[in-house]
Design goal:
Blueprint (H helix, E strand, L loop, with lengths): L9 E4 L13 E8 L2 E7 L5 E7 L4 E3 L9
Antiparallel strand pairs: 1-2, 1-5, 2-3, 3-4
Length: 71
């Protein structure tokens, strides 16, 4: 099953992204769908963006806050 995040999905990193100071497990929001990637914004608790970059879908886990019906 392909896991392609959609705009406004909340995602977590599945791997460290060296050079951007991001580590596995950090949470961000998809802000744009790109050709083969998505732009993800990472913000602190006050809403201040500390990183925004294009990532491949296989680097991300889409998080769900509500029950999802089994496929």
């Amino acid at each position: 099953m392909e896991n392609h995040p959609q705009v406004l999905d909340i995602v977590a990193l599945l791997e460290d992204v060296k050079g951007h100071g991001l580590i596995r497990g950090q949470v961000g929001t998809v802000v744009e769908d790109l050709d083969g990637a998505v732009e993800v914004e990472f913000s602190d608790e006050e809403g201040i963006t500390y990183a925004e970059l294009a990532l491949r879908p296989d680097q991300l886990l889409v998080l769900h806050h509500h029950p999802v019906q089994a496929a």
